Amino acid sequence: MKSLDLEQLAGTQSRTYQSRKITDDMIARPVHVAIALWEVPWESADSGKIEGWVIAVDAPRGRFVRSGQTKNGDVVSRTVSMLKAALKGVRGKAWLVTGRRQAALRAELVRQNYLVTGSFAEQNRAGVKASAISRRAEQAALYKAKKIGEFAERAPRVKERQEAHWWPQFARAEGALGVLRLATDASTDGVFRGAMCFVASNGDYLLDTRDTTASSDELELESITHALRYLKKIGASQARIESDSKAALEAIDFILATTPRRGRWRGITARARNHFKEAWEELEGACTVELSRVLGHAGDPLNQAADQIAYMGMRAVIFEQKSAHPTLLKGIEKALHKAG
């Protein structure tokens, strides 16, 4: 059986990947714009919903927000029209980001020659503001819809479960000791595939995939737990573990500051929290561990390697093992080489 192309595992052939790719030119542009769309069911509307937009602009001469809503199903054209008005008189080239699954908006922006990325990126200075205001606007509209009887429950969209052919499990623990730096990351399809990974500065790594419905935050926490267990296994005395997951690090603060509790905490199960605490306590007195946050997709070699390996491992599940196994190993070694 012919091996897969590496691009099939890395996802670099997809339009989604290309639409989310961030370049130095984008980041360097003086004007950053973030556009967030939201929608709430609204029975009396012709489109069956009320849709809104938030446009946040961060320019050298100031920051501002424009927002609005419509019940006419014309959210894309209304948003683009308001964007043009908002940027009129703003000097400098702009980099735009939109939320995920906003293909129609992104296509229209590209057609009108805007430089746009198809998901919110931490490097975009306007993203946090647009996201926060959009959530508040959506919550306010939802509250009003329920209060005046316009809200109608929708059946949740069921994501199709693809066939799993194998569950990759790879690890290497033979690098030199010393003060280690480890990057952790996780990937999930939101249905049943989950992958956890860490990459160490000495070339060691771990990839663990499993059939799971755990949230991405929980998988990020479990990636850190894997890193702690690795440190105990090799007898490390000092290490720095880095994660690009704010939620996982906040969960760790909660775990270490409270007594064990049952149930979920922000979507993270007690089981995952207990696993972390056990691994953390096993290192006490033997290894000094510093936990820190790094920006994802910001060019850090170790973080990029962990991200790529976790993603490739998650994707490999749906391909035949005979064709995917050698390609995945090739992709892992390539990612590790870049990180080194």
UniProtKB/TrEMBL annotation:
<dbReference type="GO" id="GO:0003676">
    <property type="term" value="F:nucleic acid binding"/>
</dbReference>
<dbReference type="InterPro" id="IPR012337">
    <property type="entry name" value="RNaseH-like_sf"/>
</dbReference>
<feature type="domain" description="RNase H type-1">
    <location>
        <begin position="180"/>
        <end position="315"/>
    </location>
</feature>
<dbReference type="InterPro" id="IPR036397">
    <property type="entry name" value="RNaseH_sf"/>
</dbReference>
<protein>
    <recommendedName>
        <fullName>RNase H type-1 domain-containing protein</fullName>
    </recommendedName>
</protein>
<dbReference type="GO" id="GO:0004523">
    <property type="term" value="F:RNA-DNA hybrid ribonuclease activity"/>
</dbReference>
<dbReference type="InterPro" id="IPR002156">
    <property type="entry name" value="RNaseH_domain"/>
</dbReference>
